[in-house]
Structure prediction request, 266 residues.
Amino acid sequence: GKTTTMRMIAGLEDVTEGEIRIDGILVNDLEPKDRDVAMVFQNYALFPHLNVEQNMAFSLKFRKVAKPEIRLRVAEAAEVLGLAGLLRRKPAELSGGQRQRIGIARALALEPEVIICDEPVSALDVSIQAQVINLMEELQDLLGLTYLFISHDLGMIRHIADRVAVMYLGKIMELADVDSLYADPLHPYTRALQSSAPVPDPVVEATRVKILLKGDIPSPSNPPPGCPFSTRCPEAVDRCRNEAPVWREVAPGHGVACHLVDVGGH
Prediction:
């Protein structure tokens, strides 16, 4: 559900119900080019026949930005991302890290309100991942950017995020600021995810109790009648299997969809 949600926010998928608001503005019926959103993709999504400069300028041309303004924005984004010397090269001539920087620069050139990052570093080597994430954090501080960052890497999410939404089968199970979520996870799925993430300490890792989830993941097109996680939840009771939990804020800024969590987070 994460990528589908991202595509709906960007306007690439139709919304069947509900509202999407960006900075308080309802955008359900706005074209993607009018939503003040840019995207950074997992697989770079660069045109192989265009050079770096042309790739960065493509979305601006599509939005009918004047040519002098396009040249200015591309030059500024290339300078910030360290790409000024690569503008005449084709994507095939560049490394994976350089291609992802082009994707980020292309997004910056649009001067968006929000940049949606869909697994933006999962295709890169671990050493390059850290470089790109650090660069994104520097750009966030420098330009005041807002990221919607989608990832399966819990360590990376803890490093880069301010608030975290945990999704399962297209539903948000828990939402909280990053410190609260990692210090006191309330939903059984969140706890299971955290228990599965390796800890870079062999002594601690050897003594950790991991939550092993059993059972099959239901089909998103035919979810169970109750909580979507009930078929695999080690704590599920009959109510979980028959009644969908209501989303509640159980502590300031900390919401959860679980019958087993009371207000106050117990």
About this structure: The CA atoms of residues 105 and 167 lie 29 Å apart.
